[in-house]
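lol ok so funny story. i was supposed to be doing the assay writeup but got distracted and ended up predicting the structure for this chain instead. priorities right. anyway since i did it might as well share w the group, maybe its usefull for someone
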Amino acid sequence: MIRPVLILVFIAFAYTGIAQNSFIQTVEDFSLSSLYGVFSADDNFVTYGIYIDSTGSRMARKTDTSGNTLWTWKALDYTMNIYCGAADGDGNIYLCRYRSSLGPRLLKLSPEGDSIWQKPLPGNQPISISRTHDDLFLLLSHAGNGLIFSKTDLSGDVIWSKQISNIDLDDERNGLTHFEMSDSAILIITQSSEPLFGDYITYFQLFSQAGDSLSEFSFPVYGPQQIVYSAFRLNDHEVALTGKYQGEYNVDQRFVSRINVLSGEVVWYKTVLQDILNARLLIAGVSENRIMISGNIQNTVNMPLQALSMGMTLDGDVLFYRGYGVNILQDISSVCLAADGGIVAAGHTYSGDKMKGFIMKTDHNGMVNVLGTGSVTSRIILNCYPNPVVDRLCIETSAGIRLIELFDANGRKTGQTECYGNKKIMLPMNAQRPGLLLVRVVHDQGVDCIKVMVR
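and the output, tada:
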């Protein structure tokens, strides 16, 4: 009788919905460390950054989707930083490095992490590298007077190199990223700042596979200080963007947008996470027709950054967002999509007073098998109105409300009201000062936050 019971228990556990192949871990084998980037390599992923032990240098390490470290490569010339990387179809690793006295270098590692060769590259500081459909590499780099775009083969030999922008007083462009849109077109995304007003303009430039310019347009500016953080190819003519802009009362807002790079049409532009004080969104990729996003969120000023897991439909509807890490800063620098469709995010955190490299791996549903805080948008209905508010704020939810807390923009608690399961509360606002207010609602199904403006 014992054996059937054990089998039933095992089956029940296997289907409880716990996130599989997910983890959060810190790099503990160095005194100090920080991860700057991450990219996929065969069915695993590679992170890179800095470490400090008896000497201190740059390092790269390969990790599988269960969190096991497969190997760690350490640089001998510790002043030569790693700026970006990619893998070829055989699992070889290519790292773009730079030091002002030596110039840029392309380092090739075997799938086992052994150094094979290192060769010079055009330009100065590398920005991004990607593999093409015919197993070549495209590289975007800074140069002394602008940006340089080049193509190399798997031996590190430069096939062609083109200057794509020049620095002048009216248009100083910084490279964001690039990718191959199709067998015949390459997209480069750059961003420039207007020197008098500080407005940012994002440019899309299409090039042929030979590096010849095909077309160019600029992303519409929806507000001052609109900054693009990340971009990802959706199909052969569309990309998704994330970034921020200054909204009403100079409050930063986050956006996700879908752009047709052939016509210049903005397919949709959505403001997201309006109930979060700060957020930086980075697109990891597309999995099961969902845009998978990571980065950071911060609910109030006195709370540290949390690692973000977020999913959106291809039509721009938020499916979920979750924050992981409550009392310790989790700062995300780079993201990619894992082979199983989960998000991989890399950055740094703190263990005591020491900075440590940080990796978060979610399952294909954006879940991590640890305690997280956040919101699933389909979980409850939460409405706060009117917004802006003058004297009384109405809070309505589909779950019983237990506690309402109010915080100003500096994270200072300005009010608290205990509730007893009501689903509609009228909250006096006469004692609140004009400005941004974060409303934190504790209800029977969890915690949700929303921002309101007090006049």
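The chain has two domains: 25-375, 382-454. Residues 382-454 form a domain with the Immunoglobulin-like fold (CATH 2.60.40.1220).
back to the writeup now i swear
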